[in-house]
Amino acid sequence: PYAVVAHSFGAAATAVALRDGMKVERAVFLSPPADPLAGIQDFAKTVGLAEDVWRRMAERIEARFGMRLADLALPGFVSRLDVPLRIFHDVEDREVPLAAGEAVARAWPGAKLTRTEGLGHFRILYAPEVLVPAVDFLAEGRPSNAWPGPELLASVAQARATPRGVHGG
């Protein structure tokens, strides 16, 4: 594939896939977690799981997938990746704190982080102020025979007319 766009734990899984040999020319991450184990701990606190319960849950995940969650902490390995990355993360994200996106951006060479406001963890997925710069970033290096088709171009043009709530960049 030319590019990948991934959200939340999908972004973490994508980073692992890139580490393990997947090849893309560009990547966009929305609300990436820096450390899946910390994400499990945060989830456990949110739903009131006891420590022994979330630890067993983490052990089961590790056994199921045959890898240690500690080895999936993005800041520990993304410095070796050479894929241009654009990160979008909302300052009010309750599921994955902004600090996680900042940690990934600091560790990933050349990554660019854009902070948004008022989008949270899910509205960031379809907000024009994220979609337009994400598509522009992906289009910068695209092969001449690749997307976008007329439908995408029309929707991006429409989205460009309504940018709001973006900081940094």
Description:
- With 169 residues, the chain is of the alpha/beta class.
- It has a single domain, classed as Rossmann fold (3-Layer(aba) Sandwich).
- Helices cover 43% and strands 14% of the residues.
- The protein is built from six helices and five strands.
- It has helices at 9-19, 36-47, 51-65, 98-107, 128-140, 150-160; strands at 3-7, 26-30, 85-90, 112-116, 166-168.
- The protein has a five-stranded mixed beta sheet with strand order 1-2-3-4-5, with helices on both faces.
- Helix 2 (36-47) packs antiparallel against helix 3 (51-65) and helix 5 (128-140) crosses helix 6.
- The chain starts with a strand and ends with a strand.
- The mean pLDDT is 88.
Helix content: 40-55%
The CATH superfamily label reads Alpha/Beta hydrolase fold, catalytic domain
Classification by helices and strands: alpha/beta
* Main pleated-sheet profile: 5 strands, mixed
What is the typical, i.e. mean, pLDDT? 88
Report the strand count. Answer: 5
Q: Determine and state the CATH class.
A: Alpha Beta
Widest β-sheet, arrangement of strands: 1-2-3-4-5
Give the SSE map:
Elements: E1 3-7, H1 9-19, E2 26-30, H2 36-47, H3 51-65, E3 85-90, H4 98-107, E4 112-116, H5 128-140, H6 150-160, E5 166-168
Parallel strand pairs: 1-2, 2-3, 3-4
Antiparallel strand pairs: 4-5
Helix pairs in contact: 2-3, 5-6
Notable characteristics:
alpha/beta; 5-stranded mixed beta sheet; 169 residues; 6 helices; 43% helix; single chain; Rossmann fold; globular
